[in-house]
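Lab notebook, bench 4. Still working through the backlog of constructs that have no structural model yet. Next entry is a single chain of 346 residues. Request: give me the structure tokens for it.
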Amino acid sequence: MLVSTFFFIANLDPGGSDASQIMQGAQNGSQLIVSLFEKDWEDLVNGNSPVYTAVTSVALLAAVALVSFWSLGWYVQISEEGFSPGVITEMVYPLLVIMMLAVNNGALLANSSLALRNVSNNINNNVLNITRNGVTLKEAIRNTSMDQAFIMAAKAQMAECEKQPLEGIDQDGNEINPRQICINETTEKIKKESDDFRAKNNLPETKTNWNIFDLGGQAINATVQGLSYIIFSGLAAAFQYVVQVSFLLNSYIGPIFLVLSLLPIGAKPILAWLAGWLALGLVLVSYSIIVGIAASSIVNTPSNNPLFLPLVEAILSPILAVAIGSGGGMAVFTGFSNTAKIIGRR
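Model written out:
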């Protein structure tokens, strides 16, 4: 999406590249966001991430200090009771925390984070493969985005046609309408690029309306729509980027939540960390469902409005997805806390 925005800006210039490059940029941009953090995750799991290593080192020192402090009580309890089930139960969790932080710079916890991230992405991919209105959500989003990208390019070039005069003389001395000729040529050019792009990428045909009177319009209106398209695309890309950063950030702070769970407090902070993973997963899946449903509802409906899906992607879907994810994460954390209290009483 970030790359597609720059491609689109370049194509607002009538002398720019073909409209197919806009969509190609959109696909490359989406792939870029997905794979942008692969190296960070690889470094995280291999113990080569400087941020994660620093956080793990501090957390390990704190864990050793806390375990050393509480070991005095264990020594007294062992002297009185021996290695009773109660003593062993109290020692298992602190030792497990030390092991998860000490082995290969917290590799065990890092692998757990990677597994949680992969589960979220796999669920999201499965959701996108759900069929609605005869097309999967993934295909609906891709097809609708492609149509709107080509329509946006057509509108930008149509605005240039509006600057042409209504009357003129060709080389043979015949009266012509330069504006209408420009509109006809632009319409055919954009439609051909759309058809070629579909054939090249094995995309199904849709009912996109290429009515030249609908595509044409005032230059001011086309400029406003172009700027709005760029802004909405940028916001949608930024939201997807923030979600991926949040996955990585949640992994970085994992050691802190793990060591804080050694403190004698009611709820274990590690449960909040797990609830955070669920919340992020719900945000990702909810966003895909909302955008997918919106795209599938218009994928087979003729429309020349290029701003509907970007508006849903950039503003409406993030708000609703964050609300659903936050509520679900809080509900799970409350459930974890209540369960821990019940177990503690027993």
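Notes after review: The longest helix spans residues 308-345. The radius of gyration is 28 Å. Flag for follow-up if needed.
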